[in-house]
Amino acid sequence: QVQLVESGGGLVQAGDSLRLSCAASGGTRSMYAMGWFRQAPGKEREIVAAISWGVGYAYYADSVKGRFTISRDGAKNTVYLQMNSLKPEDTAVYYCAVTYSARFTTTSSYTYWGQGTQVTVSS
Fold it and tell me: I need a surface site. Which of 50, 58, 65, 71 has the fewest CB within 10 A?
């Protein structure tokens, strides 16, 4: 069973940048994609970005296009989320997840989840 550990969250001001990391271990040989998701208080969890492992197809939510970049390091089994020009509305707990399905742009396809890391953006 794959295990995921996120890191890199914190408290920043609007306009600042953060880079989130998620390291996967165990059960990684067959994973199709890894993704980043976020959940703000009182809201549903939403997909932020995802990347397929074999080819590197990337998907972004409209709200983060042009500001966030997802990348992967196959040798380290790690996915990153570079977040630039952060806004207060980006405040949420950010989770990484793994899917073994080719349908990697929808939340319901993801099977394993990390513990989450808090990102808080002040105005």
Answer: 65
CA distances from 81 to 1, 7, 110 (A): 23, 10, 17
Contact 13, 122 (CB under 8 A): yes
Other beta carbons within 10 angstroms of residue 77's beta carbon come to 20
Tens of pLDDT, residue by residue over 44-91, are 999 999 999 989 999 999 999 999 999 999 889 999 999 999 999 999
Torsion, CA 98, CA 8, CA 39, CA 77, rounded to 10: 0
- 61-71 burial, b at 16+ Cβ within 10 Å, e below that, comes to beebeeebbbe
Helix (H, G, I), strand (E, B) or coil at 85: coil
Give 67's DSSP letter.
T
